[in-house]
Specification:
Arc Repressor Mutant, subunit A, 2 domains, 193 residues, 9 helices, elongated, mainly alpha, single chain, Tetracycline Repressor, domain 2
């Protein structure tokens, strides 16, 4: 990912206001609603100032994304020490508070390479953290997994994402059965730790 020069003071209240306003607009109306003028209006600042702090709107989007990732990483770090790690990872994967926000960045990634690269980078990092924690947990409990831990973390994330997306669209067919299967799977993995 090409590094871009960040302008203005990192700790500036104005910079923070632009980031916060952008996040609010993305959450409320979607990324396509974000313009320099709308962000500035929401932040209560002149829109030209955005370009004092950011080279482009893409740089602003990237900073909003990275801030969200740091919040996810904080939650994941707390989960990794859970007594019943498989269930804690499943709960973490099912945390729906940021689903719409995440979906907006996934949609944005179709149009913006810098966002696509950032998503890939952080997704790999998060998957590696989950996998390493699950490997330690299973080894510590003497559990021989039927699936490699990386496949388990991939399936947890993928299933939870699919359930969440379908639920947000009003689709529920097969959800109860899938939840029951996951519960049995977690019960099997729960012998670790």
């Amino acid at each position: 990912m090409a590094a871009t020069k960040k302008l203005g003071a990192e700790s500036s209240a104005s910079r923070g206001a632009f980031v916060e306003a952008t996040e609010q607009l993305i959450r409320e109306e979607g990324w396509a609603a974000v313009t320099a003028r709308r962000v500035a209006e929401r932040a209560g600042l002149k829109f030209q100032l955005i370009y004092y702090y950011f080279n482009s709107l893409d740089d602003l989007f990237l900073e909003v994304f990275e801030r969200g990732v740091e919040q996810h990483l904080e939650r994941l770090r707390a989960v990794i020490d859970a007594e019943d790690l498989p269930r804690a990872l499943w709960a973490y994967s099912n945390d729906s508070r940021d689903n719409r926000f995440t979906l907006e960045f996934m949609a944005m990634a179709n149009h913006k390479q810098v966002i696509r690269e950032a998503i890939a980078k952080y997704a790999e990092r998060i998957r590696a953290m989950q996998t390493q924690a699950l490997e330690r947990y299973l080894q510590g409990g003497g559990v021989e997994p039927s699936l490699p831990p990386v496949v388990t973390t991939f399936l947890m994330t993928g299933i939870s994402r699919a359930l969440s997306l379908e639920s947000s669209l009003g689709i529920g067919g097969g959800h109860a059965e899938t939840q029951a299967l996951v519960e049995a799977w977690l019960e099997h993995l729960g012998g670790g730790g």
